[in-house]
Structures are given as structure tokens and as C-alpha cells.
Amino acid sequence: MRRLLALLLVPCGLAVLLGLVVLAPSPSEYARVAERAATGQGAPGLGSQTPVDAEVLRAAGESDCTDPNLPSPGEGEGCVAVTLRLQDGPAAGSTIVTLAPTTPGSPRFAVGDAVVLGWAGGDPTDALGYTIVDFQRGQPLLLLGGLFALAVLLLGRWQGLAALVALGATLGVLAVFVLPALATGGPPVPVALTASGLIVGIVLPLTHGLSARTATAALGTLASLGLIGVLALLFAALSRLTGLGEEASELAGLVGPGLDLRGLLLAGVIIGALGVLDDVTVTQTSAVWELHRANPAARLADLYGAAMRVGRDHVASAVNTLVLAYAGAALPLLLLFALAGRGLGDLLTAEDVAQEVVRTLVGSIGLVASVPLTTVLAAVVVRAVSPSTRSPAA
């Protein structure tokens, strides 16, 4: 059985290595694309401006918007004069006064706020060259990340440490392979499948060790991902999804006409589903192993039936989690449609929402399919590799 598992997994590993060789761009190629993007529209929210950190020293009322970088105020709206101390950039340490709009959708500033400015270039002491574009969020996010790591370590101990290392490896695959490959025009679906296979090959053994149990979970994950990829391709075509949206349109203008926006949507479906799939497949495999340990004489059908009862409960909650996760992230969009008087049918079939409907339902189908598939694989494997398995009469 162990040889059979290796026979099934080795071709997957070779396919991943082939994908890395064929799809990974050279550093110079990615550097050219990044340089072209940097001289074009720059970072999100900054346009072609250079980011500069600053601290708010004072925010006083101002009735007239005279800064040409700001939109014209509506009736009853104006601007607030914000005094800022520049923390970096060519004029670090100096103080400037810039204007911020006071429209209903604009942020409010208070003394001590850490903000990010967009500098248009020219005289670094000229206040008209700066615009407030965002808040600095590095410190609170770093604190939150530290609390997350501490919670994982307290509960998981050494296995929690392995999980954190695996998380770092996942982020590394995304940063070093996926993003450069997509930015240089790589086909999104093969890139996503290659990255998913690589993540499975790194994360599962690192977190759970090299064993027949881990190999079974990996097989269940990869098979379910293949199903998700096929369904995503089919229903994206049937639904005539374009992948166009505000961020995608901006990205297309940044990267160029060679970017496959629909493929990018499908790649997001595959990578997003992987995060839930490995949870379900590992849980199901572990459930089968523990049930077998509790009763080594259990028949295959009994082992499968008991583990499926666990899987049904897990899937029922996981599917609801997927829907609620999207609804929570998209509340402003859903509210906008509701206030516009759009019916439920119009809401669900609009491009932005339909993309997430396809993403959620395709991922959920793959999630549901992964439970019986992984469970039967695990039941067969555990009875074959366990020396204590007896073969009672069926």
C-alpha cells in the first residue's frame, strides 16, 4: 500500500516540478515588469506618487478647498487643514500643511495619527506636492500577527510551530512563484495548480510528518482540487464570467493586455479552495485513523460509515462558513444593491456577485466531494498498513 501511495504521488510531484520549471519567470523578466508597473500607476491608492510616512500634528477647520489634488466639494462640504510632520522622504523632519476633504466618505484625522502621504515629486518642501492617501497600519497588524502566533504555539506547541513554518512556506510560494508568474503573463490556472501541488507537498508533511496518513490526505486534497478546477472552468464559461472588476481592470491596465482576467478568477477559486480542502481532508484522515485505533477489528464498511458521520458534521458547518465569509466581506456591496432596489436575482447574477457565487459553490462542491473520497481512501489505506488489522467475516 505504501508503494501504491508513492506510485500515485510521484507523478504529481513530477508534474509540480515541471510546472515550476516551465512557468516560473526569470528574476530579470519579473524585474522588468515590476519596473514598468512602478513607472506607470505605482502602488494601489498612490498612483504615480511616492509613499511618505507622516504624523498628524494638528487638524483644524478650513472652509475652502484650494488644493488642486482634491475633488471639488459639494454643497455644505469643505476641507480640513492637516498639519503633518514628515517621517521619511527627502524632507524628513519638516512640517507641512495640506488639505483633506470632509465629505461623508472621507476619513477623519486626529492629533497623533500615523498616515501615508503620496508625494508627486518636485520640491519636497512644497505642501501642494503631498496628498494624504492612507493610514499607517504596520504596528497594529504586527501586534495581531504576534498574538496569532502566540495562540497557535500555546495550543499546538511543537506542531503549532511546524504549522507556523508551513504558513511561512505557503506565503513564500505565493510571493516567489505565483505572483511573479502571473505578473509576467503566465497561464493562471496551471500556475494555481502547480502552486497548490507545491503547497500540499510542503505543508502537509511539514505539519503532520511523512506517513501513510499524510499521503492519503494529500491524495484526497489533490483529487478534490482537480474536480474544483474542472467545475470552475465549466461554470465560468457557462456563466460568461469575464473576471472584470475595479481591481482587475486596474491590474489589466498595469500589466497589459496579455493578462487573462477570467483565468485569474479561476486561479483564485483553486487557491482559495485549497485552504479549506486541506483542513477537511486532514481531519477526515485523522478521524479514520483514530477510529481504527479504537477498534482495529472494524470492517471497512463500519469504518467508512463512522468517519462519514464525522465528515457530514464538518462539511455542514464548513459550507455555511464559506457563505458567511463571503457575505461578511461583501456587506457594503450587498447593501449597495439592496438600497438600489435591485432584486435578489439581479443581485446574484451581477458580475461582481456572480464571481463569488461561482467561487463559493464550486469550492463547496469540491469540499463535499472530498469527504467521501478521502474517507474511503483513508479506510482502505489504514487497514492495509496497520499490522493489527484483523479480517473478520463480512
TrEMBL record:
One matching Pfam family: YibE_F
Keywords on record: Membrane, Transmembrane, Transmembrane helix
Transmembrane segments: 138-155, 162-183, 189-207, 219-239, 259-277, 318-341, 361-382
Statement: the UniProt record of this protein carries the keyword Cytoplasm: no
Residues forming coiled coils: none
InterPro entries: YibE_F
Name of the protein described by the UniProt record: YibE/F family protein
Source organism: Actinomycetospora chibensis
Taxonomic classification: Bacteria, Bacillati, Actinomycetota, Actinomycetes, Pseudonocardiales
